[in-house]
Amino acid sequence: MDCALKCVALLVLLGCAFSKISASLVKDDYEHCKNTVNKWASSSPDLEVKEEKHRLRDLLFFLHVPRTGGRTYFHCFLRKLYSSSLECPRSYDKLRFDPSKHNCRLLVTHDDYSMMSRLPAEKTSVVTILRNPIDRVFSTYEFSIEVAARFLVHPNLTSVARMAGRLRSKQGGVSTLDIWPWKYLVPWMREDLFARRDARELQGLYSRSNDSYNMEDTVMPLHEYINDPIARDIIHNGATFQIAGLTNNSYLAEAHEVRRCVLKHQTLGEYVLEVAKKRLDNMLYVGLTEDHRESATMFANVVGAQVISQKIASNYSKNPEDNDISEESSSPEYHQNSSTDQNASKISAAQIINAKNEHMTVGRLMEAYETCISSLRRTQKQRRTASLKRISPANFSKEARLDVPEVVLQQIKSLNILDMELYRYAQSSFSKQHKQMLRQLKLQEKDIKLDDPYSAASRNFLLFAISIILLLLFIGLFVKRRRTLKLKL
Ligand SMILES: *[C@@H]1O[C@H](CO)[C@@H](O)[C@H](O)[C@H]1NC(C)=O
Ligand SMILES: *[C@@H]1O[C@H](CO)[C@@H](O)[C@H](O)[C@H]1NC(C)=O
Ligand SMILES: *[C@@H]1O[C@H](CO)[C@@H](O)[C@H](O)[C@H]1NC(C)=O
Ligand SMILES: *[C@@H]1O[C@H](CO)[C@@H](O)[C@H](O)[C@H]1NC(C)=O
Ligand SMILES: *[C@@H]1O[C@H](CO)[C@@H](O)[C@H](O)[C@H]1NC(C)=O
Ligand SMILES: *[C@@H]1O[C@H](CO)[C@@H](O)[C@H](O)[C@H]1NC(C)=O
Ligand SMILES: *[C@@H]1O[C@H](CO)[C@@H](O)[C@H](O)[C@H]1NC(C)=O
Protein backbone atom coordinates (compact mmCIF):
# COMPACT_ATOMS: atom_id res chain seq x y z
CA MET A 1 0.00 0.00 0.00
CA ASP A 2 2.62 2.43 1.15
CA CYS A 3 4.83 1.24 -1.62
CA ALA A 4 2.09 1.67 -4.17
CA LEU A 5 1.57 5.27 -3.04
CA LYS A 6 5.28 5.93 -3.19
CA CYS A 7 5.42 4.46 -6.66
CA VAL A 8 2.59 6.65 -7.85
CA ALA A 9 4.24 9.71 -6.34
CA LEU A 10 7.49 8.79 -7.99
CA LEU A 11 5.79 8.34 -11.33
CA VAL A 12 4.06 11.70 -11.04
CA LEU A 13 7.35 13.34 -10.17
CA LEU A 14 9.07 11.65 -13.06
CA GLY A 15 6.27 12.65 -15.36
CA CYS A 16 6.59 16.24 -14.23
CA ALA A 17 10.30 16.27 -14.72
CA PHE A 18 9.97 14.72 -18.14
CA SER A 19 7.37 17.16 -19.35
CA LYS A 20 9.50 20.02 -18.05
CA ILE A 21 12.49 18.69 -19.90
CA SER A 22 10.56 18.26 -23.11
CA ALA A 23 9.04 21.72 -22.73
CA SER A 24 12.46 23.20 -22.34
CA LEU A 25 13.65 21.17 -25.33
CA VAL A 26 10.85 22.64 -27.42
CA LYS A 27 11.78 26.09 -26.17
CA ASP A 28 15.43 25.45 -26.95
CA ASP A 29 14.50 24.28 -30.39
CA TYR A 30 12.48 27.42 -30.92
CA GLU A 31 15.36 29.61 -29.80
CA HIS A 32 17.77 27.67 -31.93
CA CYS A 33 15.42 27.91 -34.90
CA LYS A 34 14.85 31.58 -34.44
CA ASN A 35 18.58 32.19 -34.49
CA THR A 36 19.09 29.97 -37.50
CA VAL A 37 16.34 31.61 -39.51
CA ASN A 38 17.34 35.09 -38.45
CA LYS A 39 20.94 34.48 -39.39
CA TRP A 40 19.93 33.14 -42.77
CA ALA A 41 17.57 36.05 -43.43
CA SER A 42 20.05 38.75 -42.55
CA SER A 43 22.84 37.18 -44.55
CA SER A 44 20.72 36.63 -47.65
CA PRO A 45 22.10 38.40 -50.67
CA ASP A 46 20.12 40.82 -52.84
CA LEU A 47 18.11 42.46 -50.12
CA GLU A 48 18.86 46.06 -50.97
CA VAL A 49 16.83 47.49 -53.78
CA LYS A 50 18.99 47.53 -56.84
CA GLU A 51 19.51 50.75 -58.72
CA GLU A 52 19.01 49.55 -62.21
CA LYS A 53 16.75 46.62 -61.73
CA HIS A 54 14.74 47.54 -64.82
CA ARG A 55 17.71 47.09 -67.08
CA LEU A 56 18.25 43.68 -68.60
CA ARG A 57 21.68 42.32 -67.78
CA ASP A 58 23.73 39.75 -69.65
CA LEU A 59 22.04 36.68 -68.24
CA LEU A 60 18.28 36.26 -67.96
CA PHE A 61 17.30 33.83 -65.21
CA PHE A 62 13.69 32.68 -65.50
CA LEU A 63 12.78 31.31 -62.09
CA HIS A 64 9.96 29.04 -63.16
CA VAL A 65 7.60 28.32 -60.29
CA PRO A 66 5.83 25.06 -61.26
CA ARG A 67 2.29 25.40 -62.63
CA THR A 68 2.30 29.12 -63.24
CA GLY A 69 2.28 28.90 -67.02
CA GLY A 70 6.00 29.53 -67.35
CA ARG A 71 6.27 26.92 -70.03
CA THR A 72 4.28 29.06 -72.47
CA TYR A 73 6.65 31.95 -71.79
CA PHE A 74 9.57 29.67 -72.42
CA HIS A 75 8.23 28.33 -75.71
CA CYS A 76 6.33 31.32 -77.00
CA PHE A 77 8.55 34.22 -75.88
CA LEU A 78 12.02 33.16 -74.83
CA ARG A 79 12.58 30.66 -77.58
CA LYS A 80 11.69 33.33 -80.09
CA LEU A 81 14.12 35.76 -78.53
CA TYR A 82 17.09 33.56 -77.78
CA SER A 83 18.56 30.96 -80.07
CA SER A 84 19.13 27.64 -78.38
CA SER A 85 22.87 28.18 -78.56
CA LEU A 86 22.41 31.01 -76.04
CA GLU A 87 20.45 28.88 -73.62
CA CYS A 88 22.32 27.50 -70.64
CA PRO A 89 22.66 23.80 -71.29
CA ARG A 90 20.37 21.43 -69.39
CA SER A 91 18.57 24.37 -67.88
CA TYR A 92 15.90 22.33 -66.17
CA ASP A 93 18.21 19.70 -64.85
CA LYS A 94 20.14 20.73 -61.78
CA LEU A 95 22.33 17.68 -61.55
CA ARG A 96 23.90 18.27 -64.92
CA PHE A 97 23.77 22.05 -64.97
CA ASP A 98 27.08 23.82 -65.17
CA PRO A 99 26.90 27.59 -65.73
CA SER A 100 30.65 28.13 -65.54
CA LYS A 101 31.23 26.05 -68.62
CA HIS A 102 29.25 28.10 -71.07
CA ASN A 103 28.77 31.70 -71.85
CA CYS A 104 25.03 31.38 -71.87
CA ARG A 105 22.45 34.17 -71.80
CA LEU A 106 19.24 32.40 -70.83
CA LEU A 107 18.52 30.08 -67.93
CA VAL A 108 15.03 28.66 -67.40
CA THR A 109 14.58 26.35 -64.48
CA HIS A 110 12.44 25.06 -61.63
CA ASP A 111 15.48 25.26 -59.39
CA ASP A 112 15.16 27.85 -56.67
CA TYR A 113 16.80 31.21 -56.08
CA SER A 114 19.83 29.61 -54.45
CA MET A 115 20.91 28.96 -58.03
CA MET A 116 22.13 32.56 -57.97
CA SER A 117 25.09 31.44 -55.92
CA ARG A 118 26.29 29.66 -59.05
CA LEU A 119 25.68 32.58 -61.38
CA PRO A 120 27.43 35.90 -61.89
CA ALA A 121 24.92 37.77 -59.70
CA GLU A 122 25.97 41.23 -60.91
CA LYS A 123 25.26 40.27 -64.48
CA THR A 124 21.99 38.46 -63.90
CA SER A 125 18.40 39.66 -64.20
CA VAL A 126 15.71 37.50 -62.63
CA VAL A 127 12.12 37.15 -63.81
CA THR A 128 9.27 35.01 -62.52
CA ILE A 129 5.51 34.44 -62.63
CA LEU A 130 3.25 33.92 -59.63
CA ARG A 131 -0.18 32.36 -59.43
CA ASN A 132 -3.06 32.32 -57.01
CA PRO A 133 -1.94 29.62 -54.52
CA ILE A 134 -5.24 27.73 -54.50
CA ASP A 135 -5.19 27.35 -58.26
CA ARG A 136 -1.56 26.39 -58.13
CA VAL A 137 -2.27 23.58 -55.70
CA PHE A 138 -5.16 22.31 -57.83
CA SER A 139 -3.02 22.45 -60.90
CA THR A 140 -0.14 20.63 -59.21
CA TYR A 141 -2.48 17.87 -58.06
CA GLU A 142 -4.03 17.51 -61.49
CA PHE A 143 -0.76 17.62 -63.38
CA SER A 144 1.03 15.07 -61.23
CA ILE A 145 -1.90 12.71 -61.73
CA GLU A 146 -2.10 13.50 -65.43
CA VAL A 147 1.53 12.60 -66.01
CA ALA A 148 1.35 9.54 -63.76
CA ALA A 149 -1.78 8.28 -65.52
CA ARG A 150 0.14 8.00 -68.80
CA PHE A 151 1.94 5.05 -67.29
CA LEU A 152 -1.29 3.13 -66.80
CA VAL A 153 -0.79 1.63 -70.27
CA HIS A 154 1.62 -0.70 -68.51
CA PRO A 155 0.30 -3.81 -66.78
CA ASN A 156 2.36 -3.22 -63.62
CA LEU A 157 5.14 -1.13 -62.09
CA THR A 158 7.85 -3.66 -62.93
CA SER A 159 7.03 -3.17 -66.54
CA VAL A 160 7.13 0.64 -66.07
CA ALA A 161 10.57 0.44 -64.51
CA ARG A 162 11.94 -1.73 -67.28
CA MET A 163 10.60 0.64 -69.95
CA ALA A 164 11.92 3.71 -68.17
CA GLY A 165 15.41 2.23 -67.95
CA ARG A 166 15.42 1.43 -71.65
CA LEU A 167 14.17 4.89 -72.59
CA ARG A 168 16.72 6.67 -70.47
CA SER A 169 19.67 4.84 -71.89
CA LYS A 170 18.36 5.46 -75.40
CA GLN A 171 17.50 9.16 -75.36
CA GLY A 172 19.67 10.81 -72.75
CA GLY A 173 17.24 13.78 -72.85
CA VAL A 174 15.53 15.56 -69.98
CA SER A 175 12.10 14.26 -69.10
CA THR A 176 9.53 15.36 -66.56
CA LEU A 177 10.81 12.62 -64.32
CA ASP A 178 14.23 14.26 -64.06
CA ILE A 179 12.85 17.63 -63.10
CA TRP A 180 12.20 18.79 -59.60
CA PRO A 181 9.48 18.66 -58.20
CA TRP A 182 7.94 16.22 -60.68
CA LYS A 183 10.65 13.69 -60.01
CA TYR A 184 9.02 13.22 -56.60
CA LEU A 185 5.38 13.98 -57.34
CA VAL A 186 4.95 11.82 -60.44
CA PRO A 187 6.41 8.56 -59.08
CA TRP A 188 4.39 9.09 -55.91
CA MET A 189 1.14 9.39 -57.87
CA ARG A 190 2.18 6.63 -60.23
CA GLU A 191 2.57 4.13 -57.43
CA ASP A 192 -0.66 5.31 -55.93
CA LEU A 193 -2.59 4.91 -59.20
CA PHE A 194 -1.29 1.39 -59.74
CA ALA A 195 -2.13 0.41 -56.16
CA ARG A 196 -5.68 1.70 -56.53
CA ARG A 197 -6.09 -0.05 -59.85
CA ASP A 198 -4.86 -3.35 -58.40
CA ALA A 199 -7.23 -2.97 -55.45
CA ARG A 200 -10.15 -2.30 -57.78
CA GLU A 201 -9.36 -5.34 -59.84
CA LEU A 202 -9.06 -7.53 -56.77
CA GLN A 203 -12.21 -6.35 -55.05
CA GLY A 204 -14.32 -5.44 -58.04
CA LEU A 205 -15.17 -2.12 -56.39
CA TYR A 206 -16.45 0.72 -58.49
CA SER A 207 -16.89 4.33 -57.69
CA ARG A 208 -20.16 5.59 -56.37
CA SER A 209 -18.76 9.07 -55.99
CA ASN A 210 -19.31 11.61 -58.75
CA ASP A 211 -16.80 14.08 -57.29
CA SER A 212 -13.58 13.77 -59.28
CA TYR A 213 -11.58 15.32 -56.47
CA ASN A 214 -12.78 12.67 -54.04
CA MET A 215 -12.88 9.41 -55.94
CA GLU A 216 -11.03 7.15 -53.62
CA ASP A 217 -11.05 3.94 -55.64
CA THR A 218 -9.49 5.61 -58.70
CA VAL A 219 -7.18 8.42 -57.59
CA MET A 220 -5.91 9.83 -54.34
CA PRO A 221 -8.53 12.33 -53.13
CA LEU A 222 -7.44 15.96 -53.07
CA HIS A 223 -7.84 16.34 -49.31
CA GLU A 224 -5.58 13.36 -48.77
CA TYR A 225 -3.01 14.67 -51.25
CA ILE A 226 -2.69 18.10 -49.68
CA ASN A 227 -2.17 16.65 -46.22
CA ASP A 228 0.55 14.21 -47.17
CA PRO A 229 4.07 14.96 -45.87
CA ILE A 230 5.31 15.04 -49.46
CA ALA A 231 2.91 17.87 -50.28
CA ARG A 232 4.04 19.71 -47.19
CA ASP A 233 7.62 19.16 -48.26
CA ILE A 234 7.36 20.49 -51.78
CA ILE A 235 3.99 21.99 -52.70
CA HIS A 236 2.68 24.26 -49.97
CA ASN A 237 4.17 27.73 -49.83
CA GLY A 238 6.23 26.50 -52.75
CA ALA A 239 6.48 29.89 -54.48
CA THR A 240 7.76 31.61 -51.34
CA PHE A 241 10.29 28.88 -50.65
CA GLN A 242 11.45 28.87 -54.23
CA ILE A 243 12.00 32.62 -54.33
CA ALA A 244 13.64 32.54 -50.92
CA GLY A 245 15.94 29.75 -52.16
CA LEU A 246 14.69 27.33 -49.51
CA THR A 247 13.09 24.47 -51.43
CA ASN A 248 14.19 20.99 -50.59
CA ASN A 249 16.09 21.22 -53.87
CA SER A 250 18.22 24.13 -52.67
CA TYR A 251 21.93 24.55 -53.34
CA LEU A 252 22.36 26.26 -50.03
CA ALA A 253 23.70 23.96 -47.31
CA GLU A 254 21.83 25.64 -44.44
CA ALA A 255 18.57 25.75 -46.42
CA HIS A 256 17.41 22.43 -45.06
CA GLU A 257 17.73 23.40 -41.44
CA VAL A 258 16.01 26.73 -42.12
CA ARG A 259 13.19 24.88 -43.87
CA ARG A 260 12.78 22.44 -41.02
CA CYS A 261 12.54 25.33 -38.58
CA VAL A 262 10.05 27.28 -40.61
CA LEU A 263 7.84 24.25 -41.17
CA LYS A 264 7.92 23.52 -37.47
CA HIS A 265 7.46 27.02 -36.05
CA GLN A 266 4.97 28.88 -38.18
CA THR A 267 5.78 32.34 -36.82
CA LEU A 268 9.25 32.11 -38.34
CA GLY A 269 7.62 32.17 -41.75
CA GLU A 270 7.62 35.97 -41.51
CA TYR A 271 11.37 36.07 -42.04
CA VAL A 272 11.10 33.97 -45.17
CA LEU A 273 8.28 36.11 -46.48
CA GLU A 274 10.29 39.28 -46.02
CA VAL A 275 13.22 37.88 -47.95
CA ALA A 276 10.93 36.68 -50.73
CA LYS A 277 9.24 40.09 -51.03
CA LYS A 278 12.56 41.88 -51.30
CA ARG A 279 13.67 39.48 -53.96
CA LEU A 280 10.51 40.21 -55.94
CA ASP A 281 11.23 43.92 -55.62
CA ASN A 282 14.58 43.36 -57.28
CA MET A 283 13.34 41.33 -60.19
CA LEU A 284 13.21 42.67 -63.69
CA TYR A 285 9.71 41.31 -64.18
CA VAL A 286 7.07 39.52 -62.10
CA GLY A 287 4.02 38.31 -64.03
CA LEU A 288 0.74 36.92 -62.77
CA THR A 289 -0.86 33.81 -64.22
CA GLU A 290 -4.35 35.19 -63.65
CA ASP A 291 -3.70 38.51 -65.42
CA HIS A 292 -2.52 36.69 -68.42
CA ARG A 293 -2.98 39.33 -71.14
CA GLU A 294 -1.50 42.19 -69.15
CA SER A 295 1.38 39.99 -68.03
CA ALA A 296 2.22 38.92 -71.56
CA THR A 297 2.11 42.49 -72.86
CA MET A 298 4.33 43.61 -70.06
CA PHE A 299 6.78 40.79 -70.67
CA ALA A 300 7.04 41.73 -74.33
CA ASN A 301 7.57 45.41 -73.53
CA VAL A 302 9.83 45.10 -70.52
CA VAL A 303 11.87 41.98 -71.23
CA GLY A 304 11.29 41.34 -74.93
CA ALA A 305 12.12 44.89 -76.01
CA GLN A 306 15.42 44.79 -74.13
CA VAL A 307 16.44 41.41 -75.45
CA ILE A 308 15.74 42.67 -78.94
CA SER A 309 17.81 45.79 -78.40
CA GLN A 310 20.64 43.70 -76.99
CA LYS A 311 20.79 42.43 -80.57
CA ILE A 312 21.05 38.83 -79.58
CA ALA A 313 17.61 38.02 -80.89
CA SER A 314 18.55 35.35 -83.28
CA ASN A 315 18.10 35.12 -87.00
CA TYR A 316 18.51 31.61 -85.95
CA SER A 317 18.92 28.38 -87.79
CA LYS A 318 17.53 27.79 -91.20
CA ASN A 319 18.00 24.13 -90.57
CA PRO A 320 14.87 22.46 -89.15
CA GLU A 321 16.91 19.61 -87.74
CA ASP A 322 18.65 21.88 -85.23
CA ASN A 323 15.42 23.11 -83.83
CA ASP A 324 13.99 19.63 -83.54
CA ILE A 325 16.95 18.48 -81.55
CA SER A 326 16.88 21.38 -79.17
CA GLU A 327 13.17 20.90 -78.69
CA GLU A 328 13.76 17.34 -77.60
CA SER A 329 16.84 17.70 -75.51
CA SER A 330 16.72 20.90 -73.53
CA SER A 331 13.07 21.78 -73.09
CA PRO A 332 11.15 20.34 -70.18
CA GLU A 333 9.27 18.30 -72.73
CA TYR A 334 7.12 16.01 -70.73
CA HIS A 335 7.93 12.59 -71.89
CA GLN A 336 5.28 10.37 -73.28
CA ASN A 337 4.80 8.01 -76.12
CA SER A 338 1.93 9.08 -78.31
CA SER A 339 1.39 10.49 -81.73
CA THR A 340 -0.17 13.71 -80.41
CA ASP A 341 3.11 14.41 -78.76
CA GLN A 342 5.13 14.04 -81.88
CA ASN A 343 2.72 16.31 -83.69
CA ALA A 344 3.06 18.86 -80.93
CA SER A 345 6.79 19.23 -81.19
CA LYS A 346 6.57 19.38 -84.96
CA ILE A 347 4.15 22.28 -84.79
CA SER A 348 6.15 24.31 -82.35
CA ALA A 349 9.45 23.66 -84.09
CA ALA A 350 7.98 24.93 -87.33
CA GLN A 351 6.74 28.09 -85.66
CA ILE A 352 10.06 28.73 -84.04
CA ILE A 353 11.79 28.67 -87.37
CA ASN A 354 9.26 31.09 -88.86
CA ALA A 355 9.51 33.55 -86.05
CA LYS A 356 13.26 33.54 -85.89
CA ASN A 357 13.70 34.20 -89.55
CA GLU A 358 11.97 37.53 -89.30
CA HIS A 359 13.47 40.66 -87.95
CA MET A 360 12.03 40.76 -84.47
CA THR A 361 10.10 43.68 -82.98
CA VAL A 362 7.86 43.87 -79.92
CA GLY A 363 4.80 43.86 -82.16
CA ARG A 364 5.97 40.79 -84.05
CA LEU A 365 6.91 39.11 -80.82
CA MET A 366 3.37 39.55 -79.51
CA GLU A 367 1.93 38.19 -82.75
CA ALA A 368 4.21 35.17 -82.67
CA TYR A 369 3.30 34.66 -79.03
CA GLU A 370 -0.43 34.64 -79.72
CA THR A 371 -0.13 32.05 -82.47
CA CYS A 372 2.26 29.93 -80.49
CA ILE A 373 0.18 29.96 -77.34
CA SER A 374 -3.01 28.86 -79.02
CA SER A 375 -1.34 25.88 -80.63
CA LEU A 376 0.47 25.02 -77.41
CA ARG A 377 -2.80 25.12 -75.49
CA ARG A 378 -4.45 22.91 -78.06
CA THR A 379 -1.82 20.22 -77.84
CA GLN A 380 -1.70 20.46 -74.05
CA LYS A 381 -5.43 19.95 -73.91
CA GLN A 382 -5.31 16.95 -76.24
CA ARG A 383 -2.60 15.40 -74.18
CA ARG A 384 -4.47 16.01 -70.97
CA THR A 385 -7.72 14.57 -72.28
CA ALA A 386 -5.94 11.48 -73.57
CA SER A 387 -4.23 10.95 -70.26
CA LEU A 388 -7.24 11.57 -68.04
CA LYS A 389 -9.23 9.01 -70.01
CA ARG A 390 -7.16 6.40 -68.25
CA ILE A 391 -8.58 7.37 -64.88
CA SER A 392 -12.15 7.84 -66.03
CA PRO A 393 -14.76 8.44 -64.55
CA ALA A 394 -12.53 10.88 -62.67
CA ASN A 395 -12.07 13.96 -64.80
CA PHE A 396 -10.66 17.31 -63.74
CA SER A 397 -12.33 20.46 -64.95
CA LYS A 398 -13.31 23.92 -63.82
CA GLU A 399 -16.89 22.77 -63.28
CA ALA A 400 -15.83 19.80 -61.19
CA ARG A 401 -13.72 22.10 -59.01
CA LEU A 402 -16.88 23.88 -57.95
CA ASP A 403 -17.97 20.76 -56.09
CA VAL A 404 -14.88 20.73 -53.87
CA PRO A 405 -16.07 21.47 -50.32
CA GLU A 406 -15.24 24.81 -48.75
CA VAL A 407 -13.38 23.07 -45.90
CA VAL A 408 -10.81 21.75 -48.34
CA LEU A 409 -10.32 25.17 -49.92
CA GLN A 410 -9.86 26.72 -46.50
CA GLN A 411 -7.32 24.07 -45.67
CA ILE A 412 -5.35 24.81 -48.83
CA LYS A 413 -5.36 28.48 -47.85
CA SER A 414 -4.09 27.82 -44.37
CA LEU A 415 -1.41 25.45 -45.64
CA ASN A 416 -0.26 28.21 -47.98
CA ILE A 417 -0.33 31.26 -45.77
CA LEU A 418 3.05 32.52 -46.97
CA ASP A 419 2.16 32.08 -50.61
CA MET A 420 -1.19 33.81 -50.12
CA GLU A 421 0.57 36.84 -48.68
CA LEU A 422 3.32 36.83 -51.28
CA TYR A 423 0.72 36.66 -54.02
CA ARG A 424 -1.16 39.67 -52.62
CA TYR A 425 2.10 41.55 -52.51
CA ALA A 426 2.93 40.63 -56.10
CA GLN A 427 -0.53 41.70 -57.23
CA SER A 428 -0.10 45.17 -55.85
CA SER A 429 3.41 45.57 -57.33
CA PHE A 430 2.12 44.29 -60.62
CA SER A 431 -0.66 46.80 -60.89
CA LYS A 432 1.78 49.63 -60.15
CA GLN A 433 4.28 48.43 -62.70
CA HIS A 434 1.58 47.88 -65.28
CA LYS A 435 0.29 51.44 -64.91
CA GLN A 436 3.81 52.74 -65.22
CA MET A 437 4.33 50.74 -68.38
CA LEU A 438 1.14 52.10 -69.93
CA ARG A 439 2.28 55.63 -69.13
CA GLN A 440 5.62 55.01 -70.76
CA LEU A 441 4.05 53.49 -73.84
CA LYS A 442 1.86 56.58 -74.19
CA LEU A 443 4.86 58.86 -73.89
CA GLN A 444 6.67 56.85 -76.53
CA GLU A 445 3.64 57.15 -78.78
CA LYS A 446 3.73 60.93 -78.39
CA ASP A 447 7.41 60.99 -79.22
CA ILE A 448 6.74 58.98 -82.30
CA LYS A 449 3.97 61.41 -83.32
CA LEU A 450 6.31 64.36 -82.99
CA ASP A 451 8.88 62.57 -85.04
CA ASP A 452 6.63 61.21 -87.69
CA PRO A 453 7.08 62.55 -91.24
CA TYR A 454 3.49 63.67 -91.58
CA SER A 455 3.57 66.02 -88.63
CA ALA A 456 7.04 67.16 -89.61
CA ALA A 457 5.69 68.07 -93.02
CA SER A 458 2.81 69.98 -91.53
CA ARG A 459 5.21 71.77 -89.20
CA ASN A 460 7.30 72.80 -92.18
CA PHE A 461 4.22 73.95 -93.99
CA LEU A 462 3.25 76.11 -91.02
CA LEU A 463 6.68 77.70 -90.91
CA PHE A 464 6.49 78.30 -94.62
CA ALA A 465 3.05 79.89 -94.33
CA ILE A 466 4.16 82.17 -91.50
CA SER A 467 7.18 83.36 -93.40
CA ILE A 468 5.03 84.10 -96.45
CA ILE A 469 2.64 86.14 -94.33
CA LEU A 470 5.48 88.03 -92.73
CA LEU A 471 6.96 88.69 -96.12
CA LEU A 472 3.65 90.00 -97.46
CA LEU A 473 3.23 92.24 -94.43
CA PHE A 474 6.74 93.57 -94.90
CA ILE A 475 6.16 94.24 -98.57
CA GLY A 476 2.85 95.88 -97.69
CA LEU A 477 4.56 98.14 -95.19
CA PHE A 478 7.33 98.96 -97.63
CA VAL A 479 4.90 99.81 -100.40
CA LYS A 480 2.85 101.99 -98.05
CA ARG A 481 5.95 103.79 -96.92
CA ARG A 482 7.04 104.47 -100.45
CA ARG A 483 3.60 105.87 -101.18
CA THR A 484 3.78 108.22 -98.21
CA LEU A 485 7.25 109.18 -99.32
CA LYS A 486 5.98 109.89 -102.82
CA LEU A 487 3.21 112.02 -101.41
CA LYS A 488 5.67 114.07 -99.43
CA LEU A 489 7.75 114.55 -102.48
C1 LIG B 1 4.30 -7.37 -64.96
O1 LIG B 1 3.96 -7.36 -66.35
C2 LIG B 1 4.84 -8.11 -67.16
C3 LIG B 1 4.47 -7.87 -68.60
O2 LIG B 1 3.11 -8.09 -68.83
C4 LIG B 1 4.74 -9.59 -66.75
O3 LIG B 1 5.62 -10.37 -67.54
C5 LIG B 1 5.14 -9.71 -65.28
O4 LIG B 1 4.96 -11.03 -64.84
C6 LIG B 1 4.30 -8.78 -64.43
N1 LIG B 1 4.86 -8.79 -63.08
C7 LIG B 1 4.12 -8.91 -62.00
C8 LIG B 1 4.85 -8.85 -60.69
O5 LIG B 1 2.92 -9.05 -62.05
C1 LIG C 1 -22.89 14.90 -58.06
O1 LIG C 1 -24.09 14.46 -57.48
C2 LIG C 1 -24.77 15.45 -56.72
C3 LIG C 1 -26.02 14.82 -56.16
O2 LIG C 1 -25.76 13.52 -55.78
C4 LIG C 1 -25.12 16.64 -57.62
O3 LIG C 1 -25.73 17.64 -56.83
C5 LIG C 1 -23.86 17.20 -58.25
O4 LIG C 1 -24.18 18.23 -59.16
C6 LIG C 1 -23.13 16.08 -58.98
N1 LIG C 1 -21.87 16.62 -59.46
C7 LIG C 1 -21.40 16.36 -60.65
C8 LIG C 1 -20.07 16.96 -60.99
O5 LIG C 1 -21.97 15.66 -61.46
C1 LIG D 1 12.53 16.45 -50.89
O1 LIG D 1 11.19 16.01 -50.78
C2 LIG D 1 10.93 14.70 -51.23
C3 LIG D 1 9.47 14.42 -51.06
O2 LIG D 1 9.05 14.59 -49.76
C4 LIG D 1 11.81 13.70 -50.48
O3 LIG D 1 11.60 12.43 -51.02
C5 LIG D 1 13.26 14.10 -50.64
O4 LIG D 1 14.08 13.23 -49.92
C6 LIG D 1 13.47 15.52 -50.16
N1 LIG D 1 14.84 15.90 -50.38
C7 LIG D 1 15.57 16.52 -49.47
C8 LIG D 1 16.95 16.89 -49.85
O5 LIG D 1 15.13 16.80 -48.37
C1 LIG E 1 21.75 37.99 -88.30
O1 LIG E 1 22.21 37.75 -89.59
C2 LIG E 1 22.91 38.86 -90.18
C3 LIG E 1 23.28 38.49 -91.58
O2 LIG E 1 23.53 37.14 -91.74
C4 LIG E 1 24.14 39.17 -89.32
O3 LIG E 1 24.82 40.28 -89.85
C5 LIG E 1 23.68 39.47 -87.91
O4 LIG E 1 24.80 39.69 -87.08
C6 LIG E 1 22.88 38.33 -87.37
N1 LIG E 1 22.37 38.67 -86.06
C7 LIG E 1 22.52 37.88 -85.03
C8 LIG E 1 21.94 38.35 -83.77
O5 LIG E 1 23.07 36.80 -85.10
C1 LIG F 1 5.43 3.68 -78.16
O1 LIG F 1 4.23 2.94 -78.16
C2 LIG F 1 4.20 1.94 -79.13
C3 LIG F 1 2.85 1.24 -79.05
O2 LIG F 1 1.83 2.18 -78.88
C4 LIG F 1 5.32 0.93 -78.89
O3 LIG F 1 5.32 -0.04 -79.92
C5 LIG F 1 6.64 1.67 -78.90
O4 LIG F 1 7.68 0.79 -78.57
C6 LIG F 1 6.63 2.81 -77.89
N1 LIG F 1 7.86 3.54 -78.00
C7 LIG F 1 8.49 4.00 -76.95
C8 LIG F 1 9.72 4.77 -77.22
O5 LIG F 1 8.07 3.84 -75.81
C1 LIG G 1 -0.59 13.92 -86.32
O1 LIG G 1 -0.39 14.48 -87.61
C2 LIG G 1 -0.78 13.62 -88.68
C3 LIG G 1 -0.49 14.31 -90.00
O2 LIG G 1 0.49 15.28 -89.85
C4 LIG G 1 -2.28 13.32 -88.56
O3 LIG G 1 -2.65 12.40 -89.59
C5 LIG G 1 -2.56 12.71 -87.21
O4 LIG G 1 -3.96 12.51 -87.07
C6 LIG G 1 -2.07 13.60 -86.11
N1 LIG G 1 -2.26 12.90 -84.83
C7 LIG G 1 -2.88 13.47 -83.82
C8 LIG G 1 -3.09 12.60 -82.66
O5 LIG G 1 -3.26 14.63 -83.83
C1 LIG H 1 -13.26 15.64 -69.21
O1 LIG H 1 -13.71 17.00 -69.23
C2 LIG H 1 -13.33 17.72 -70.39
C3 LIG H 1 -13.78 19.15 -70.24
O2 LIG H 1 -14.59 19.36 -69.17
C4 LIG H 1 -13.92 17.07 -71.62
O3 LIG H 1 -13.50 17.75 -72.78
C5 LIG H 1 -13.45 15.63 -71.69
O4 LIG H 1 -14.07 14.97 -72.76
C6 LIG H 1 -13.81 14.89 -70.41
N1 LIG H 1 -13.20 13.56 -70.45
C7 LIG H 1 -13.88 12.48 -70.12
C8 LIG H 1 -13.12 11.19 -70.22
O5 LIG H 1 -15.03 12.51 -69.76
Automatic annotation (TrEMBL):
Q: Which residues form the signal peptide?
A: 1-23
The reply on keyword Signal is: yes
Q: Which UniProt keywords apply?
A: Glycoprotein, Membrane, Signal, Transferase, Transmembrane, Transmembrane helix
Q: Which InterPro entries match?
A: Heparan_SO4-6-sulfoTrfase, P-loop_NTPase
Cellular component per GO, a single term: membrane
What is the annotated localization of this protein? Membrane
Q: State the SUPFAM superfamilies in the record.
A: P-loop containing nucleoside triphosphate hydrolases
Region Disordered: what ranges?
Answer: 315-343
Predominant cellular place of this UniProt entry's protein: membrane
Q: How does it sit in the membrane?
A: Single-pass membrane protein
Query: Where does this protein have compositionally biased stretches of type Polar residues?
Result: 328-343
One MF term in the entry's GO annotations? heparan sulfate 6-sulfotransferase activity
Q: Which residues cross the membrane?
A: 461-479
* Protein's UniProt name: Sulfotransferase
The source organism is: Rhododendron simsii
